Amino acid sequence: MAKVTLAGLQAMKREQRKIVGVVVWDYQMARIVDRVGVDIVSVGDTVGVNLWGRANPLEIELDEMIVVARAVRRGVQHALLSCDFPYGPLQEGPDSAVRAAIRLVKEAGVDLVKLDGAADHLPAVTAVHRAGIPVFAQFGITPQTALRYGVEYRPDPGAGSTVPPEMRDELVAEAERLEAAGASLLNFTNSGPVVGAAVANAVSIPVIGGHGGGPWLDGRMRMATAAIGYAASALDDPPDTYANVARISFDAITAYAGDVRAGRQIKGGSAR
User: Fold this and answer.
1) pTM > 0.85: yes or no
2) Fewest CB atoms within 10 Å of the CB: 20, 26, 65, 236?
3) CA 163, CA 267: separation in Å to the nearest integer?
4) Mean pLDDT of 255-261
5) ∠60-154-160 over CA atoms, to 5°?
C-alpha cells in the first residue's frame, strides 16, 4: 500500500471518500490497523486513563507521549501518524508548542501533531504550521470547552452531548479560523449532524469526527480498544462494538489457568 499523504486526504474529501482514523497506543495494534489500511493512526493522550489506569489525562507528560509514539511508529508504514500534545506545551504559548512539536517529529517520527482545544490557541497553531509541521486541530465540546460554550459535557454520545444547532455559525467561524491559522485537519468532537455538516462544508480541509461524530463528517476517529471491546468493563456490560476482546481474553486466560492447575501442558508452552 502507498503511503497516505495530506494531499491524498484532501482528495478523499473532494471525492467524498470517507477517511478512517484509529487511536492506537502500542506496536502490535499499530501493525494490525496499518495492515487493514486505515488512513490516520493517532497516538492519543487518553493512553494515561484507558491503558495505564490514571485518574486524569492531564497527568501525562510529553516524554511519555514520545515513548508511546515511538512504539506506534515502528508498526505504522502506510498511514499518517499523529500524536497528541499532552496538557502543557500548547497552553504555555507558541514557542513551547513549536518545541514540543519538533520533539515529536524528531524523536518519535510523527507526521503531524494533534492539538486539543486548538481554537483557543491560534498563534500556536500558526507557529507550528510555519515550523513545517502539519497540525491536526481538535475543537468542539470537550470537558475543557463545555463551560465556555455554555453546554453540559456528557461522556456518552447520547442526546444532549452534541453541539446545539444554534451554535452552527459560531463553530463554522471557529473552523474557518483554524484553517486560516494553518491547520491541515480538524477533529470536531460532539459535532452533531446539523453543525457537523455545516462545518465540513465550510472548510476545504478534512473534518474528522471522534466522540459524538457521524457520517456527516469527512471521516471518523475511534480508539482501537473501544472498537474491539478491550476494556475490562466489557466483561460485565457488553458494549456495542465490533468484538468483545475482553471476554475472549478472559475465556482464554481461564482456560490457560485450568490447564496449569490440572497438570496439563499449556498451549504453545513447549514443543510437542
Assistant:
1) yes
2) 236
3) 51
4) 96
5) 150
What ranges in the chain are assigned the alpha helix state H? 6-14, 27-36, 47-50, 62-75, 94-108, 122-130, 146-149, 168-181, 193-202, 224-228, 245-261
Helix, strand, coil % in the chain, rounded to nearest 5: 45, 15, 40
What pLDDT, in 10s, does the model give residues 70-118? 999 999 999 999 999 999 999 999 999 999 999 999 999 999 999 998 9
Residue 21's φ and ψ, nearest 5 degrees, are -120, 145
pLDDT digits (tens, 9 = 90+) for 121-153: 999 999 999 999 999 999 987 666 666 666 666
- Is residue 62 within 8 Å of 42, Cβ to Cβ? no
| Rg of the chain, C-alpha, whole Å | 20
Contacts of 39 (CB under 8 A, 6+ apart): 4, 8, 9, 12, 19, 20, 21, 79, 80, 219
24 closest CA partner among 92, 85, 81: 81
Cell 510437542 belongs to 272
Query: Once rounded to an integer, what is the mean pLDDT over residues 23-28?
Result: 97
Confidence of residue 13 (pLDDT cuts 50, 70, 90): very high
Phi/psi for 185 (5° steps) reads -145, 155
78 vs 38, 74, 237, 242, CA distance in Å?
8, 11, 35, 23
Q: How far apart are CA 46 and CA 147, in angstroms?
A: 21
Q: Are 114 and 189 in contact (CB under 8 A)?
A: no
Which pLDDT score, from 0 to 100, does residue 145 have? 67
Coil, strand or helix at 134: coil
* Average confidence (pLDDT) over 175-196: 95
C-alpha 253, offset from chain centre: 30
